[in-house]
Amino acid sequence: MSAADIKLPNAEQLLNDLAQKIEPLLQANTALVGIQSGGAWLMHRLLVLLADSISTHAIEHGTLDVSFYRDDFAQRGLKSETRPSQIPFDVDNKHIILIDDVFYTGRTTRAAMNELFDYGRPASITLVALVNRGGRELPIAPQIVGIDVPLDAEQNLQLLQHSNGTLYLALQPSLSSTPSSTIKTDSHE
Amino acid sequence: MNNPQLDQDGRLRHLLSIEGLPKKILNQILDTAESFVGVAEREVKKVPLLRGKTVCNLFFENSTRTRTTFEIAAKRLSADVISLNVNSSSQSKGETILDTVDNLIAMHADMFVVRHSQSGAAHFIAKHVPPHIHVINAGDGRHSHPTQGLLDVFTIRKYKPDLHNLRVAIVGDILHSRVARSEIHALTSLGVPEVRVIAPKTLLPAQVEKLGVHVYHDMKAGLKDVDVVMMLRLQNERMSGAMLPSAQEYFKTYGLTQEKLRLAKPDAIVLHPGPMNRGVEIDSSVADGAQSVILPQVTYGIAVRMAVMAMLAGGQSGGTQS
Hints:
Oligomer: heterodimer
CATH topology of the domain at 9-69 and 92-152 in chain A: Rossmann fold
CATH class of the domain at 9-69 and 92-152 in chain A: Alpha Beta
Radius of gyration of chain B: 20 Å
Strand order of the largest sheet of chain A: 2-1-3-4-5
Strand order of the largest sheet of chain B: 7-6-5-8-9
CATH architecture of the domain at 9-69 and 92-152 in chain A: 3-Layer(aba) Sandwich
Number of strands of chain B: 9
Shape of chain B: globular
Largest sheet of chain A: 5 strands, parallel
Distance between the termini of chain A: 28 Å
Number of helices of chain A: 5
Order of helices and strands of chain B: HEHEHEHEHEHEEHEHHEHH
Distance between the termini of chain B: 25 Å
Structural class of chain A: alpha/beta
Number of strands of chain A: 7
Strand content of chain B: 5-15%
Largest interface: A-B, 27 and 27 residues
């Protein structure tokens, strides 16, 4: 199946759907955390889309760069570009809504959860993904999903950002032949 | 000739000196260190990157601060750490350096942090070790002290992010200082347009201008309008013969006082690699004053050393892929 055969959904529409699904979860003691880089973009957009509820409940937010927790560090080393994780609130007893762009193997989520626990002990973590592409390798799955798009292992779906800030999905050349390649290139910023 | 510090894919394999490192690698170290600063502010100040690895601090020359910060850096990366003060162990019984290293490799050490009074000691060890072992130079003779140079630049960048617009003065014993050489290389490679050295003629290496610096012998002229003042320690233990009249005389001419610091820009920052000789190269009121960033340097030093170790240790087994 070539890239041209797949009709990719509209990321902006999916984002609006996600916002509606997330809204009922927002309450006091909730915090939004986006995984770099696509999850962080989505989180910042959700802050705007859900601004009313967020200010009502004084909801805090942060970002994670899971580079230091990845399970393929020994093989791949560090990315050429890491960004500081920023969790400027107390994680203890928070209900964390963890946001990623494309859910694939579950390894990024595993890394993100490990990192979050080094900040404190959250009351709960809810995983949100814009797209679930199938192919998970761990007993981890998103509770809230924009859309399911089953893809083959060699296909590399990425969330990208236009210069005006709007988001779109694209199939990129595969970075590696191994199925656990959820590594994101850093070219899209 | 190929660069012993990089592997065939251009990734950092050993850190021996700042000379010869591409700007891209220097920036990658500094950017990665930025991410490690936050780790120290968390509840759990550790990341699992070097879990199962053994880092061996091989100190043939004493340096409590450097050894301690390397130890903390390795531990925050979850490595196991062994620190050896070799002058007080086997070497005094006649074992050669390479025998010491081979024995530690037989004990499955993965990384060596080497401090030695002889220039080139870390290069010598790096040439000898098998490909999966990494070497970090933690100071060799008068030659180089790359992590100190990097942490100084990192500290400067924290306070003065636009390196392309800075005037930096390095003051003191340039001749005996491996730190000064590393600093000069790091600053000029990262695009600092004006680096000055201020020292008496007897404490400047011959042809120092060739490093791309402006030479001053007078503090008043040299400090005028600088953004950053990097003080060096007067290396008493390296001083032989009568290069200087006396410590008091030196302080009068080249010691940094509040009065002299007022010649620099009002928001200038003051760095010192430590340990300080208060009242010799720096006055206490400056060292403890509002413009001093000497203690932040120590804190950032850990993040920079974590970044270097993390970059060296990753990407081994599948190295050529991607």
